[in-house]
Write a structure and sequence with these properties.
Elements lengths: L3 E10 L4 E8 L5 E8 L3 E6 L5 E9 L4 E5 L2 E3 L6 H13 L1 E3 L2 E7 L10 E6 L2 E3 L11 E6 L3 H6 L6 H14 L4
Parallel strand pairs: 4-10
Antiparallel strand pairs: 1-2, 2-3, 4-7, 5-6, 5-12, 8-11, 9-10
Amino acid sequence: MRWTVHSEKPLYTDQWLDIRLADVEITGGRRLSHRVIRSAPGAGAAVLDEQGNVLLMWRHRFITDTWGYEIPIGGIKEGELPKDAAAREVEEETGWRPGPLRPLLYTQPSSGLSDSEHHIFVADSAEHIGEPEEDWEAERLDWVPVERIPELVDKRELVSGTSMNALLYLYATEVGNR
């Protein structure tokens, strides 16, 4: 059944988040208050090299106090195409310029709570153009064999939702097509 939204009222808004309280109607005419997080879309990329390795950032996330691998991803600026945003994010966060990007997947990482949408691309090559723009994005960068992706999931070294979706999809489609 489709839920009916009767209203939404803002609870908190800043440049990153718009947290709202929605009055929704579910089955049998029952109504409930549901929190909703509205956010701008994001874009990122899985970047491969000729040996079948993927460029990953090893980083700490303070909210969960965990370390893990992630692909470069960030916000799409107003008027920017998702593909262009993905290329920009790779350069800014890693210092590598991706080769031609092609769509990999589209995901809504937490659709029960947020309208966040992520456009993920893949590149088969990259050129090193310098250091990352910010020193806080990652502890280090690693070229990791795509075949190791399931191992990273098992070891909880790959836990970020969008990165995990993208890399497992890449593993299933790229490795399975060799």
